[in-house]
Design brief:
This is N-acetyl-D-glucosamine kinase. It is an enzyme of class 2 (transferase). It is built from 13 helices and ten strands. The chain is α/β, with parallel strands linked by helices. The strands form two sheets. The chain has a five-stranded mixed sheet, with helices on both faces. A five-stranded mixed sheet has the order 8-7-6-9-10, sandwiched between helices. About 45% of the residues are buried. The chain has two domains: about 160 residues, Nucleotidyltransferase, domain 5, CATH 3.30.420; about 140 residues, ATPase, nucleotide binding domain (Nucleotidyltransferase, domain 5, 2-Layer Sandwich).
Length: about 350
């Protein structure tokens, strides 16, 4: 840790990178290093020097080569747009979906060690960390619910314990995710077509969205490219059918709400975030396209209401900054703690 003090002394032109790597897109932001002693409160708005985006970086979805390529691309582009190079980086936090254990972390760390100088602090976590930090301004405490292409609930206590629920991908049951909602809608159309399920407005709506003339074409469309994001993109059609009164679509969304709320409750219970009596206050950060407000069928509001019914003092938060900035703030906060522990001021 001794070399860190040298770097901090030369940190005036240094930058911190935050990466949010999801199943649909990967974002990197470049922030100026904010001296610990001079900033008791972070500036609002935060100064973003550079920002870049690329495709999916979840290795489970696109493979290791494409995942690494996406991460390296956004980092290089964000630095270029900020007018900086790799030597200016003091720390980088990568919150990447699909990073679920130590071997996943080590894989991404090895990719990054090839790109950055040895002094750079590199933190690799699941994208839930970036999402939570976007609502807590870099602090790792509370619960985060991500519901986009995939879904996961993840919680952290102030003493470092953590727990997660869902986040195991579409095959293993992320039914509250965009993929889960859309895949159930596609299944409902197929079942209605062959007589195993009730007729549904989803049939005409999805056929129109996909440019198909018959439900028979759905099978070919689905397996031609079963990427998670491609299927999850159909969620707005499911919501519009539910808002129009379709019972099948309504049931699909209601089940998704139950799954998402259940994931949060599982994390809260395992970590005792609400205390022994369930009445302690704790943040619940809500992130992802599935949770964004709609006209009448508001999944995010329904999930929030369910959480508050179980934990009245929970504090739902819709972040004001994006998860990539949350990742950068997490890196800044972690560096600050490490410097304090090691006596560097």
């Amino acid at each position: 840790m001794g070399s860190a003090s040298v770097e901090y002394c030369n940190a005036e032109e240094g930058v911190i990178l935050g990466v949010d790597g999801g199943a649909t897109s990967t974002i990197c932001v470049c922030l100026p290093f904010l001296p610990f002693s001079d900033h008791r409160q972070l500036p609002d708005p935060l100064p973003v020097l550079g920002r870049a985006s690329a495709g999916c970086s979840n290795h489970n979805s696109v493979g290791e080569d494409k995942a690494r390529e996406a991460l390296e691309q956004v980092i290089a582009e964000a630095l270029s747009r900020a007018g900086k190079n790799y030597s200016a980086v003091l720390a980088v936090c990568l919150g990447v979906s699909g990073v679920n254990n130590s071997s996943d972390q080590e894989r991404v760390l090895n990719w990054m060690r090839d790109k950055f100088p040895g002094h750079v602090k590199i933190y690799v976590h699941n994208d839930a960390v970036a999402a939570l930090a976007s609502g807590t301004m870099g602090k790792l405490h509370g619960c985060v619910l991500i519901a986009g292409t995939g879904c996961i609930a993840c919680g952290f206590t102030e003493d470092g314990r953590e727990a997660r629920a869902a986040g195991a991908g579409p095959v293993l049951g992320d039914w509250g995710s965009g993929y889960g909602i859309a895949s159930r809608a596609l299944t409902a159309v197929v079942k209605a077509h062959d007589g195993r399920g009730p007729k549904t407005r989803l049939t005409d709506c999805l056929l129109e969205s996909l440019g198909l003339s018959s439900p028979d074409g759905i099978i070919r469309w689905t397996y031609a490219d079963p990427s998670w994001a491609r299927i999850a993109a159909l969620v707005p059609s499911v919501i519009s059918c539910a808002e129009a009164g379709d019972q099948v679509a309504d049931e699909i969304l209601s089940d998704a709400v139950k799954e998402l709320a259940l994931s949060v409750r599982a994390v809260v219970q395992r970590l005792h975030l609400a205390g022994e009596d369930g009445n302690d206050s704790f943040p619940v950060v809500m992130v992802g396209g599935v949770l964004e407000a709609n006209k009448t069928w508001d999944i995010g509001k329904e999930v929030t209401d369910s959480i508050l019914k179980a934990y009245p003092k929970a504090c739902p938060i819709r972040p004001k900054v994006e998860p990539a900035i949350g990742a950068a703030l997490f890196a800044w906060n972690t560096m600050k703690k490490e410097t304090e522990v090691n006596g560097y001021r």
